[in-house]
Amino acid sequence: MEMTPGLKLPRSPSAVDVIAHHATGTFEPARPSGVMARSDEFVTVDGIEIHYSAWGDRADPTVLCVHGLSRNGRDFDPLARALEDDYHVVCPDMPGRGLSQWADDPAERYSNGAMVETLVDLCDTLELDTLRYVGTSMGGGLGMALAGGPLADRIERLVINDMPPNPETDSAPEALGRIMEYVPEPPTVETVTALEEYFRDLYEGRFSEMTDAEYRRLAVTSARRTDAGRVTAHYDPRILAGEDDEDAEAPDPWDVWEAIDAPLLVLRGTDSDILPAEPFERMIETQPDAETVEIDCGHAPALNTPEQIDPIRDFFA
């Protein structure tokens, strides 16, 4: 058979592929033995050890993915897996989340300003001169601050996943109240499967639809053992203690949004109470060239299906 140079033909599914399909409910070709899709990396940024998942080839363009308030970088596994053939995908755990170090001074180190500085320093440490950025919820807010501020000359394309410029005034009060209630007091349970049930109760009907295998992955990557041997969520319960300097003159978040020059893609859950319809429409009025995708869910799209991943891939191309 004559082949065009450089053309890659799809291979037939192997027995391993079929087994993986039955185990996960999804079909993804098995990787050759010895090839690692994801690596765990650690760097120290301003005195705090930061864990990040790295996907793809460092020589390829970088995509930086930043998670929501009490989540971690493993939330981006489906998106990173879809992008890794073309991009170097970096998914950090922000301080106090996942495998990253907890802060001794949470009021200072968990503030929005401190997290913006952490991401700038992370990009400097990894020598990321240009990057594409995906931010879910809190990560989206940090992305706006970066693209409209210290990384304006480095962020080439910005994806905001279900986050308004100023959630304190833009989001529904009941949504903010819900966060203030559950984040500081994660449950402590006997088993990982019990924690998985907690996450299902918390996120089903808010996150976009996830399979049983995806909820299992979420639980496993979001669990830690306590000193007493029980199981709880893998974040510092003090993450809401972050306080920005009240004396500093912070710019209006909507002015920051308007100042962003990078091309924009905004994803929104149609029933989101973090990004309701009114601020979403104002975002588009302020940035009329922004592309938009609405997903049938609450807060937030999980970036785990073709209808959510393909627009990001196309936007980055």
Automatic annotation (TrEMBL):
Domain AB hydrolase-1: 63-308
Pfam families in the cross-refs: Abhydrolase_6 (PF12697)
Keyword Hydrolase tagged: yes
Keyword annotations: Hydrolase
InterPro entries: AB_hydrolase_1 (IPR000073), AB_hydrolase_fold (IPR029058), AB_hydrolase_sf (IPR050266)
Keyword Hydrolase attributed: yes
One GO location term (cellular component): membrane
A GO BP entry: acylglycerol catabolic process
Record-level Gene Ontology MF annotations: monoacylglycerol lipase activity
Name of the protein in question: Alpha/beta hydrolase
